[in-house]
Automatic annotation (TrEMBL):
It catalyses: guanosine(527) in 16S rRNA + S-adenosyl-L-methionine = N(7)-methylguanosine(527) in 16S rRNA + S-adenosyl-L-homocysteine. The keyword Methyltransferase applies. The keyword Protein biosynthesis does not apply. It comes from Brevundimonas kwangchunensis. It is an enzyme of class 2 (transferase). This is Ribosomal RNA small subunit methyltransferase G. InterPro entries: rRNA_ssu_MeTfrase_G, SAM-dependent_MTases_sf. Its EC number is 2.1.1.170. S-adenosyl-L-methionine binds at residues 73, 78, 126-127, 139.
Length: 207
């Protein structure tokens, strides 16, 4: 099986030369930083284009009109930095990268500044820093029950939730419904057929 590489990504997402250049520079910064701090699993770096870049960019095709995004628990910048790179040419776009850990925020700010991205890094708790956006997203942050608590302020301001989850997404949704009432849909991830993208709209505490 042919590995999924930068050429495959460029063809699938019709990425420009400028976008590809920014993604390459981001990957290099990530690789360098990952040697001294735990941002992503080292074994995932060889498959970075599929495991991280494609996994993140696929969200744009689920909300093609969305210009404003909030990435909760932004961590290494997936999906938020990838979204900001792909949206960079849109002067009305903006991505908020929210994380509670200072060292991760410093890394994110360095990337945002070096690539001149339309993005703002917020060092703090997601649920305490709600901004008004079209889409709120997260990857590998928490089970759905807890994640929806973090996302509640954004969803209640009208945002759509698009959350990257693993093969236990349906189980997590069932557990979350014991605490929350919401509408949801599941889509199969392009980067891994076992993965799911959970789309959520509207939320309130279950009675």
């Amino acid at each position: 099986m042919t590995p999924y590489d930068s050429s495959a990504f460029q063809a699938e997402f019709d990425a420009t030369a400028a976008q590809m250049g920014d993604l390459e520079r981001f990957i290099q910064r990530l690789t360098d930083a990952n040697a001294v701090m735990n941002l992503v699993g080292p074994d995932t770096i060889p498959d970075v284009w599929n495991r991280h870049i494609r996994d993140s960019a696929q969200l744009l095709q689920m909300a093609p009109e969305a210009q404003t995004w909030a990435d909760l628990g932004a961590g290494a910048g997936f999906p938020g930095i990838v979204l900001a790179i792909m949206l960079k040419k849109d002067p009305k776009s903006h991505v908020w990268l929210i994380d509670s850990l200072g060292k991760r925020c410093r890394f994110l700010r360095e990337v945002v500044d070096s690539l001149s991205l339309r993005a703002t890094v917020i060092n703090g708790r997601a649920e305490e820093n709600a901004v008004t956006v079209r889409v709120v997203t997260a990857r590998a942050v928490a089970p759905m029950e807890k994640l929806l608590g973090y996302a509640q302020p954004y969803l209640q301001r009208g945002a759509q939730g698009l959350f990257l989850k693993g093969e236990k997404a349906e189980v997590e949704l069932a557990e979350a419904r014991r605490v929350w009432q919401f509408q949801s849909d599941l889509s199969v991830s392009r980067s891994d057929p076992r993965g799911r993208i959970v789309s959520v709209r509207g939320i309130r505490r279950a009675r």
